[in-house]
Amino acid sequence: MLWSASGVKGSSIEASDGSIGTVSDLLFDDQSWSLRWIVVSMGPLSGRQVLMPPSAVVSVDSVGRALTADVTREQVEDSAELDVDAPVSRRHERSLFGRGWKPYLTPRATILGGVSGQPTAQGAAKTAWSHRPDERDPLLRSMSEVIGYYVHARDGYIGHIEDFIVDTDAWAVRYLVVDTVNWWPGKQTLVSPAAFTEVSWTAKTVDADLTRDQIQGAPEYYPGQVVDRAYEALYHDYYGYPYYWK
């Protein structure tokens, strides 16, 4: 199922023995665009935010905005606490695996190879992100952090990242919602992660290997719209991307 990140955030999480808390953020791998961790807010009284792997989720209710996880409250409460002022490091992840959490569900090839619906040759060439050498380069990124980053096409600025479209079956980022309000007022469109060639975490920008005309002519996305197979087929046909669901 495809669901917007803004819809996932704030959703309740039910463990096998009661309510845990709510989703406060999602952390994704900045090279494969797979979702690695769900940030769980334990509630205003505790003020704690801990990490839970998506592999723990057994069902998703987008209407009721609820996730059901095959874990106990104690397992989540005992998970490593997230330092909201620092990125998640590999060492932090290893400590979580030591607590019994399973590694992430989705290997890099599944997200960026032909199975994922991203263009295979293009994806393979463009996923070696060209970070500037003087920037910090942690493995995981917060979706809340990246929303608002400016997007540059090959021929100029086109807008900013407004949201993410998440595949809750594969726990992968399928599309990013780009708002072109400062270029074509009122239009939002989807851009595949495979189109992005460079991210600057200090300048808060991303570069896309697409032209403004390509993005302008792409199928329009409306906030809150259900991204169904018919829309995806239209989108993939427009860019010439293979279907990841076949």
Describe this structure in words.
The chain contains eight helices and 15 strands. Strands 1, 9, 10, 11, 12, 13, 14 and 15 form an eight-stranded mixed β-sheet that branches. Strands 2, 3, 4, 5, 6, 7 and 8 form a seven-stranded mixed β-sheet that branches. The two termini are 15 Å apart. The chain has helices spanning 5-8, 73-77, 90-97, 108-112, 120-126, 143-146, 212-217, 229-239, and strands spanning 2-4, 12-15, 18-29, 35-41, 49-52, 57-61, 66-69, 140-142, 150-153, 156-167, 172-179, 188-191, 196-200, 205-208, 220-221. It is globular. The protein is an alpha+beta fold and 246 residues long. Strand 3 and strand 4 form a beta hairpin. Residues 105-138 have low confidence and may be disordered. The longest helix is centred in the last third of the chain and has 11 residues, at 229-239.
Estimated structural class: alpha+beta
Gyration radius over CA: 18 Å
How far the N terminus sits from the C terminus, by CA atoms, comes to: 15 Å
* Beta-strand content estimate: 25-35%
Would you count the extended β strands for me? 15
Question: Which ranges are low-confidence, i.e. pLDDT below 50, for 5 or more consecutive residues?
Answer: 105-138
Q: Can you write the helix and strand succession as a string?
A: EHEEEEEEHHHHEHEEEEEEHEH
Largest sheet: 8 strands, mixed
> Helical content, roughly?
10-25%
- What characteristic shape results from the CA principal axes? globular
Mean pLDDT: 79
Count of alpha and pi helical runs: 8
